[in-house]
Specification:
Helix content: 25-40%
Oligomer: single chain
CATH topology: Rossmann fold
Largest sheet: 6 strands, mixed
Radius of gyration: 17 Å
Order of helices and strands: EEEHEHEHHHEHEHEE
CATH architecture: 3-Layer(aba) Sandwich
Shape: globular
Number of strands: 9
Bound molecules: adenosine-5'-diphosphate, magnesium ion
CATH class: Alpha Beta
């Protein structure tokens, strides 16, 4: 049994005059340690698919299992706990808290469970070191460059040791060389941790670095070379 198994996911949204069908038939399986890219034109449903795989949105039909759990059969508090333990997100926009330091931002996902312990702070510092932000721990997002903000977002996504890392156009706002270094960093961290990584990207260069590529077109997910 695959660690991640999505079968025939479909999603439609009710809109004036009927239903808008965004996903028709998206299936994907992934084992620990694997990474895949999803490409596709704007509006093809890439973010919608990632939201479903991230359990932020439920599918209209289809089945989804992650680590032996069917998340959409859970009730909301259990689903939120499952999501925060198992899944890390990196978006195109960093979504860091503007009033918090880099260190506090990395710790933020742990605060739902109460105060951060000394051990948590040490792990967060270790992650900041790992993403090259040792000297930036006390900087607020406005005091960081775009690449540094995205590095902090990667560290935040990993603080709970997720089995699944989801990235939605993570390098879309960055210049080419910064984008390359962030992509390399995410891949290194994913491999080190034996996590699964799914990256939505417009960048052929980034897609080419991943083990498998899929294209979303017309609501269907198809393998690409
Ligand atoms: P992509 O990330 O590939 O650009 P999205 O998944 O964001 O595409 O969106 C796919 C389509 O679904 C778009 O046409 C978008 O307008 C539509 N859509 C997304 N979310 C909603 C929603 N909550 N209600 C209605 N339509 C939506
Ligand atoms: Mg999108």
């Amino acid at each position: 049994m695959a660690t991640l198994s999505a079968q025939s996911l479909a999603k439609s949204y009710p809109v004036a005059g009927g239903d808008l069908c965004v996903l028709q038939d998206a299936s994907l399986t992934l084992e620990l340690g694997e990474n895949v890219a999803i490409i596709g034109p704007s509006g093809s449903g890439k973010s919608t698919l990632l939201s479903i795989l991230g359990t932020l949105e439920s599918p209209t039909s289809g089945s989804y299992e992650l680590g032996g759990v069917r998340p959409f059969s859970l009730r909301e508090p259990e689903l939120a706990a499952f999501r925060s333990r198992q899944i890390g997100f990196v978006f195109q926009e960093h979504h860091l808290l503007p009033q918090c330091s880099a260190l506090e931002n990395v710790l933020a996902p742990l605060l739902a469970d109460g105060r951060a312990t000394a051990d948590d702070v040490q792990r967060a510092q270790g992650l900041l070191d790992r993403v090259g932000l040792t000297d930036r721990r006390d900087h607020r997002p406005a005091q960081l460059s775009g690449g540094e903000r995205q590095r902090a977002a990667v560290a935040r996504a990993l603080i709970r040791n997720p089995t699944l890392l989801l990235a939605d156009e993570p390098t879309g706002n960055l210049d080419r060389s910064t984008a390359d270094s962030i992509a390399a960093l995410m891949l290194e961290l994913q491999r080190e941790r034996n996590a699964m990584l799914i990256v939505v990207t417009h960048s052929q260069t980034l897609a080419a670095r991943l083990q498998r590529r899929y294209e979303l077109d017309g609501g269907r997910l198809a393998p690409r070379s």
